[in-house]
Design goal:
Jelly Rolls, seven-stranded antiparallel beta sheet, 3 helices, 24 strands, mainly beta
Length: 345
């Protein structure tokens, strides 16, 4: 019996020794068996389909060898190189585990990018006098602040939006209308035209006046179902009359919206007295924002942000609001003139 009791005590002690193992002795999870494969498109587009797999990995960081870095949860991504010619890139993939331990693999990819001249896909040249082309433009109508505490009431009157002498004129006017102190217009292409990827160019002259807030921008076509900012927003140009010549180019999406948006600014000359070209270059790999061909903001596109579906255009002048600020009491009217809007593919 004595020997039997000793045996029980020994077994119990053995079990307890494992049960009381310190937490810092738990084995950390490390990614293993990392493999990276690349399929290079042969059509000169610069597209490369990457696939990374590893045991115990929860995400993959791609360094594409040209300065661009992208995190991909699935490990599968199509990236587009844009440098014209045949170039070889060292692509490094870092697999990460739940314990933030890593494994790395580097491969070489040789990519050919042909020089391509984009062709005109859609445009409005604003060459016919009168109301804006109803086959291309509708209107948002009403007040209520539009989510930004704006002060204007948007109408579909030619007093607020009209084509004259080859330009579209959006007019913000100080007047009593429907209980509001200001009127303006907000043109939208929703239901008329939307698209995915391409180069957009808008030649415009901006309104002056403290409190004006002109914008040329885009929203995801699924805004009515997904809501904002889940639909995505691309601000090609925004300007504040209180900061003349400072141009804002911005993207809004989940995690980067409102005051935390993904954007930059550039200061130009004569924004309210001369025409300038505001543009974006939008692909599956990136979104780049320009003024007069000067690049000032780049966002790496991916399947984790909502910029891979169709968008429509909006052009408007808001008054005041969270961005426009206090309106100058002496303000009477201001006009944004748009010479053309063009989409190239």
């Amino acid at each position: 019996m004595k020997h039997f009791l000793l045996l029980i005590l020994f077994v119990l002690g053995f079990v307890l020794s494992f049960g009381c193992k310190k937490s810092d002795e738990v084995e950390k999870i490390i990614p293993t068996n990392l493999e990276v494969n690349a399929v290079v498109s042969s059509d000169g587009s610069g597209n490369v389909a990457f696939t990374a797999t590893a045991d115990n990995a929860i995400s993959y960081d791609y360094e594409f060898g040209n300065g661009d870095i992208q995190t991909v949860q699935s490990g599968i991504v199509t990236y587009q190189y844009t440098q014209v010619g045949t170039l070889t890139y060292s692509v490094t993939v870092t697999a990460k585990s739940i314990d933030n331990l890593t494994a790395k693999e580097t491969i070489q990819v040789t990519v050919t990018v042909n020089e391509v001249t984009p062709s005109l896909y859609w445009s409005d040249e604003f060459n016919v006098d009168g109301a804006p082309d109803p086959t291309k433009w509708g209107y948002d109508i009403g007040g209520g602040g539009w989510g930004n505490q704006e002060l204007e009431y948007y109408t579909n009157r030619t007093a607020n939006a009209v084509v004259e002498q080859g330009v579209l004129k959006i007019n913000a006017i100080k007047e009593s209308y429907q209980g509001y102190e200001y009127t303006s217009a907000r043109l939208i292409s929703k239901g008329k035209f939307d698209f995915k990827y391409g180069k957009v160019e808008v030649r415009a002259k901006l309104p002056a006046g403290v409190g004006t807030w002109p914008a040329i921008w885009m929203l995801g076509i699924d805004i009515s179902t997904a809501g904002w900012p889940y639909c995505g927003e691309i601000d090609i140009m925004e300007h504040r009359g209180s900061e003349l010549n400072k141009i804002y180019g911005t993207l809004h999406y989940p995690g980067r919206s409102g005051g935390n948006a993904d954007g930059s600014t550039i200061t130009i000359s004569n924004a309210t007295t001369e025409f300038h070209v505001y543009s974006i270059d939008w692909t599956a790999a990136y979104i780049k924002i320009y003024v007069d061909d000067t690049l000032y903001h780049t966002v790496i596109n991916s399947d984790s942000i909502p910029f891979n579906h169709n968008f429509f255009f909006i052009m408007n002048i808001a008054m005041g609001g969270t961005f426009g600020g206090t309106v100058d009491p002496s303000f009477t009217n201001a006009t944004m003139e748009v010479d053309y809007i063009r989409v190239y593919k």
